[in-house]
Structure formats: structure tokens, C-alpha cells
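Ticket closed. Logging final result for Na/Pi cotransporter family protein.
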Amino acid sequence: MDVFFQIVTMAGGLALFLFGMHMLSAGLEKFSGGRLEQILEKLTSNVIKGVLLGAVVTAAIQSSSATTVIVVGLVNAGILKLHSAVGIIMGANIGTTVTGQILRLAELDSSGSASTIIQMIKPNFWAPLIAIIGVVLLMTAKKKKVKIVSEILLGFGVLFQGMFIMTEAVEPLSDSPMFHSLFQTLGNNPLLGVLVGAGVTAIIQSSSASVGILQAVASTGAVSYSAAFPIIMGQNIGTCVTSLLSSIGTSKNAKRAAMVHLYFNIIGTIVFLIAVYTINAFWPFSFWTESIGMGGIANVHTLFNIVVTILFLPFTRVLEKLAVLTIRNGSQDEEDGIEASAEINTLDDRFLVSPSLALNQCKDVVLKMGEYAQTNFTKCITLLGKYDAKKADKIRQREESIDKMEDRLNNYIVKMSDHELTDSENKMMSNILRMIPEFERIGDYTINIVECAEAIEEKEAKISAKAMEELKVLHAAVSEIIEMAIKSFRDNDITTAIHVEPLEETIDMIQDVLKAKHIERLKKGKCTIDGGLAFLEVLSNMERISDHCSNVAVYIIGYQQGGDLINRHEYIRRMHEGDFNDYAYYMDDYKKRYFDKIISKVKA
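Final structure:
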């Protein structure tokens, strides 16, 4: 019965340990706001820099699994090259050893003259205090940042409490002959030790947690260096399960990134085991049969990952080639299909573990929507003068891509809303949701212009040369306002956003003049009915595009001023009343560049 209670207590301690680790990792992730992960995107091909960044990011978010999953996602999206991913993965293995080094503080000797200071350093003293502070902050704090800090503190406290419970649960086993016999068997059979370490880690999917369990068991004095060594090697292999599972359904390079993680740990384990057991055979280690403590386990774990990383630094290309040989290239059609869906792949579910990073990916896809719509608008004007079916088909293909991106974005953001977001992340998500339909509608109106060109071609109608000259001036103005809308969104540029409205007002004035002039031409019979109606429809679509660009600018201004949605009509009224110093200047500038040019053409 005592054994049963010990197992239950051990399981309860493990549950608290895992929950505390999850809470700590999630809190650190929120506190970083995704900035650490965003560094990975900007990584160069420098492997050493990749190792350092991988180690820092993993140490900061306390999860090598999270780092490798994010790396697999970045490779899948085409943001990170496979070669760059190798360094980050190796660095993640080093960063994950930090947890074990913190846990080892529990075994510090508190006897002697400096006992009070050492006692205060030990987690037994400060872990409960940190947990108390975390609870107080969680119950009293109103600011989101303070609540995130309270989650971090609580995570630390709960993690160590779980560790204490596990240590106490296994303490009675120190006198069990069966327990000592078990670890003696593992010490005599390194392969079995590797399998046990890999199996436990694969089940709980956390090398930090499995190392913590081993440290708790080692506190009984029943674990020797010879038994712990192969188990620690196996733990590094078992942690690869998470990245392998995350690579299911990804591109070939993403699968290769997961395989690099596996090969790094398997080959590293084989090399390390051969080296250590060979040396021990000729020059026996004096400590080999002695009991290993929590600090010893932490040191072996850290030493293994640092040494193996140093050994592999000159051979990163070999790891890459091994992964490529394992995951071979498919047919050309298959590869083209992956390339064609590159924008959709950017919205990888693996990024949802870091909402800030996922939101940045969403922003990139929205920008791609805007760029596709801009390209379509640039090309559609040529179809009005001379229709080309192939050009029209390419414009439609881009429009289909815009629609696919819109659907994927909406579904992705729904998934993201299930995760806990900070205030800034919620504001960013709201801003992105407002932008999606604006850029999608710009694409739709461009297709309307293409359909006008098709109607002119089918009915053998024609837009007069004079009307085409006028349209080109309007087209230039609308092209500029689209560029300004995209720039203001891409850079969160409130200055550019403020300059959008004067140009939108100028475009409205141009449309009114051209519409009146063209109706006059229709009345005088200078233009065919079919051509004239198509011309008016094109004017209307261009004006609507400028309206959506104005909406984008208004959203950016609201977002930069705190994230609140501002009243567009109130904003325009304030502009006209002179609340914005540059409004009159830019209105005059756009009138000279576009409106006056139209007037001169109309009068000619």
C-alpha cells in the first residue's frame, strides 16, 4: 500500500512540475511578446549565431520543444533556410539545460558558517516566497503586464513545489534493494538506459521534466553515474518526438528540420557513449560507480549538449545532407505545388504557440494580399486600351490567391482567438481583421475593371483616345493611394496615413469632373453607349478603391492612437477644419499634380 501511495504522490508531483513548467513557459512567452522568436526570422546563415540565438531563446522561454516547433514552422513557411535551422536546433539543446541547473540549487549544503545565506539561495526558501508574491500579484494586479509577471512567478513556484513532492515521494525508496538493483541493471546495460530515458521523455514530451524526474530520483542516492549517463543521453533523443510530430503534413524542408534534430541527438549520443565507455575501459573513472546528485545530472546534461554542439559545428552540412537523403525530393509538380502555396504556408499552426509571431505572419499575408491587388490594378489599365485574354487570366489567378489568403487568414485568426492574448496582441489582431476585407475589396474592384474591358471587347465597343488619356491620370492617382495604403499598414506609418485622405478627396473631385464630361460626350454622340457605360463603371470602381485605401489609413491612425476604431466621417471633418496642419498643403499638391492636369485635358 505504501508503494501505491508513493506512486500517486510521485505522479501528483510530476503533474505540478509539468503544470508549473507550462505556466512558466507561457508567461515568459507572453512577456517577450514574441520578440525572441522574431529574431529567428532575421537570422543569417551564420551557424554560430544560430546556436547562440537558439540557446538564448530556449533558455528564455524554457522550452526546447517550443523552439524546435517554431523552427519547423518557419522552415515550412519558407522564412528560414534549412541550413540556418541547424544552428538554432543545436542551440536549443543547450538552452534547455538551464532548467536542470536551476533545480540543482535544491541540494546546496546549508551547513557551516554561511548556512543562512546558502539556505536563502536554495529553492526550498525562495520558491514558496515567489509563489506567494505571484498569487498576491495575480489577485490584485489590474495591468496585463503585471498579471503576466505573476504567471511567471507562480510557474516558478509550482514547478519547484512539484519537484519537492517528487523528491519526498522517492525518498523512502533509498532503502529499497529492488530500487538499487534496478539502477544497477541500467548501469550495466547502457542501451537499456538510453531506451528508458528516451521512452519517458517521449511520453511526457519534455526533456526538462524528465531530467527533473531523474534529479528527484537521484536525491535518494540510488542512482550511480554509470546508470544516469545513458538515461540522460536517451532523454535528449526522446525530446525529438515533439518536433517530429509537428512536422507531419509540412513541406519537405520542414520535415528535414525535424530530422536534423533527431540525427543530431542520435549521432551525438552514439559518439558520446562510445567515447566515454572506451575511455572508461582503459582509464576507469573513479566516480563511475558512485552516486550522482542533482548537480551531477545537471552538469552531465549540460556537458553533453555543449560538447556535441561543438563537435558538430564543422559538420552542419553533413546533418543537412543526411536529412535531405532521408526526405528526398518528390516530383517537379509536387514541388511546384508547395511553392504556389507559399503565402498560405506562412500561416502555420505551429506559430500559434507564440501569438505575437503568428500575428506578424498574418500581417505579412495581408500585405501580400495588398501587393497582389496593387499588381492587378497596375496591369488592368492596359486591358482597357487593348484587351489581352492571357493578361486577364493572370490577373484572375492573383485574385483567386487573394481570396484564398482571405479565407485562410480568417480561419487562422479564429484558431488564434482560442489562445490567451495580451492587450497589444488583441489590438493587433483587431487591426489585421479590419485590413483583410479592405485589401480583398480592392482586388474585387480591380476584377470589375477587367470585366469592363471584357465587355468592351465582346461588344466591339471602344473608349476614345481622349477618355483613355483622362483614365491614365486617374489611374496614376489611384496607384499612388494604393501604394500609400500598403506603406502605412506595412510600417504602421501614421504620417503616410494622414496624407491619404487629401489624395482620396482629390480622386473624388477627378471622378466628378470626368463623369460629368463623359456624360456630355455621350449626349453629343462622341462616344458609343457601350464604351461610355464601361468608362463610367471604371470611374466608379477606381473611386471605390480609393475609399478602401482611405479606410486603411483611418484604421492605422486609430491603431497608432491606442487601437480604438475612429469615426471616419468625424476624422474627415476635423481634417477639413484644419486639425491636421499638412492637410491643406497636400490637398493643394495633389490638385496640382492630378486635378489640374485633368482640367487641362478636359478643356483641350
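The chain has two domains: 2-326, 354-603. No further action required.
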